Amino acid sequence: MANVKNSELIVRKIKNGTVIDHITAGNAINVLRILGIKGSENITIAVVMNVKSKKLGKKDIVKIENRELTPEEVNIIALIAPHATINIIKDYKVVAKHKVKVPERVIGLIKCSNPNCITRQTREPVTSVFKVVSREPLILKCEYCGRYITSNEIVEQLSRW
Amino acid sequence: MKDKNIKYMIEKIMMFKGRDVISILDFSRDELSTLFEEALKFEKYKGRTFDYLKGKILALAFFEPSTRTRLSFEAAMKRLGGEVVHLGEVKITSIAKGESLADTITMLNAYADAIVIRHRIEGAAKFAAEIADVPVINGGDGSQHHPTQAMIDLYTIWRELGTIDGLNIGVIGDLKYGRAACSFIYGVTLYNIKRLYLISPPLLKVRAEVRDYLKSKGIPFIETSNLEEVISELDVLYVTRIQKERFPDPSEYEKVKGSYRVTATLLSKSKENTIVLHPLPRVDEIPYEVDKLSKAKYFKQAAYGIPVRMALLNLILGD
């Protein structure tokens, strides 16, 4: 217990599952929306918001029992919480830890907000490609139509509730 | 020394060979200079037909109405001794039966040596270029790109004023949805212009992406809705129409239609050598009275479409 940080003491440790740490403050709910976790599932979920962080000043943390994230979910979390770290917990221990990374180009994860863009035409065999214009705040630019998309629009688009 | 120059010229010309033309920003200022020098040669032989592209076929895939772009590409190809195949009117093709753009382009890729595409969907030309092995030339897609129009616009300034550097350039009209205006704005960023004046009704200002691009390139620009205030500063006034067909909301169009007119009285306040350009077609933004002024260069600009497109096709498809 010697290395346990104060922020982690607010809620108890989980036995198995995922801890998403260093979420940009205020975005924990957005992470849950993107993961489709409403709270009505029969799993333990802890949401800690606006706790002190050396690195970020303030941060959010989400703990989800008995759930591992898919690589796609991790990539999407990177877009709304670019400093997040994902800890995989097994038997109360961190067995894997990785930091999310916003790639130079975001391919196929999100759709362009411009309905007139070629990537929005359902019958065409084309995948969306965005170039990162700014990391904080996140702004992506569609490589086909040139339109910007912001992290708020991404959250709205990917929220499952 | 002479051999070195010839080698340099060949290298410059070879940079165009087999190339796609999607955005004006795909080209450097040097490449545009090469294109303009080639266009000037064709301009001097106006009315002559060559055999440079004999045996080559250009497919014209116009999914949207066009007069100048379609006809001038066709005329340019024929002047170079090449042939043209048309997609024809969309309603009589397989597209009306639901064929995808991808399938149509795959088919044209097999039929022709190059494809010119015009489409209302943004990014259609880039997508077509990814599918086709033959060069794809964007004849205008969505509301951002019309690169060959921008080439003609820049060529017109170069021919009429001798330079593009150091000029005050005004663009008036639909800067939000107008593809010609947007391409022209991107095009002038390749030069050291003095200042860019973006003149539009507030609803039709340039999009954030374009504004950011101008800032990133360090282009001095101002945005205004009042042409009269800035007319005396301008060396070039590029006029565009408000594009009714691109408005997602017709009530927005009603708010801005007829909101500016470039009249002879207004132009009397401009410098003696100011030139007025317009990619055409016009609606009511330039009254006919302006046509007879020496400042009016828009029909000359339309005529330059032939030598510029001949030069481009020859550089891309020539042996």
Entry keywords:
heterodimer; A: 161 residues; alpha+beta; Alpha-Beta Plaits; SH3 type barrels; 2 domains; 4-stranded antiparallel β-sheet; 3 helices; 9 strands; 16% helix; elongated; B: 319 residues; alpha/beta; Rossmann fold; 5-stranded parallel β-sheet; 4-stranded parallel β-sheet; 13% strand; globular
Distance from N terminus to C terminus of chain A (CA atoms, Å) equals 37 Å
Give helix % range of chain A: 10-25%
Low-confidence stretches of chain A: none
Number of domains of chain A: 2
Give the mean pLDDT of chain B: 93
Q: Please state roughly what percent of the residues of chain A sit in beta strands, choosing from under 5%, 5-15%, 15-25%, 25-35%, 35-45% or over 45%.
A: 25-35%
Top-tier CATH class of the largest domain in chain B = Alpha Beta
Number of helices of chain B: 12
Radius of gyration of chain A in whole Å, from Cα? 17 Å
**What's the SSE pattern of chain A?**
EHEEHEEEEEEH
In total, the number of strands of chain B is 9
Describe the structure.
The complex is a heterodimer of chains A (161) and B (319). Chain A is of the alpha+beta class and 161 residues long. Chain A has helices spanning 28-35, 71-80, 151-158, and strands at residues 17-24, 45-53, 57-65, 85-90, 93-99, 105-107, 129-134, 139-142, 148-150. In chain A, α1 (28-35) packs antiparallel against α2. The two termini of chain B are 25 Å apart. Chain B has two domains: 2-145 and 305-317, 3-Layer(aba) Sandwich (Rossmann fold); 147-302, Aspartate/ornithine carbamoyltransferase (Rossmann fold). Chain B is globular and about 55 Å long. The model of chain B has no long low-confidence stretch (mean pLDDT 93). Chain B has a five-stranded parallel β-sheet. Chain B is 40% helix and 13% strand. The longest helix of chain B is centred in the C-terminal third of the chain and has 20 residues, at 298-317. With 319 residues, chain B is an alpha/beta fold. At the A-B interface, loops of A face α5 and α8 of B.
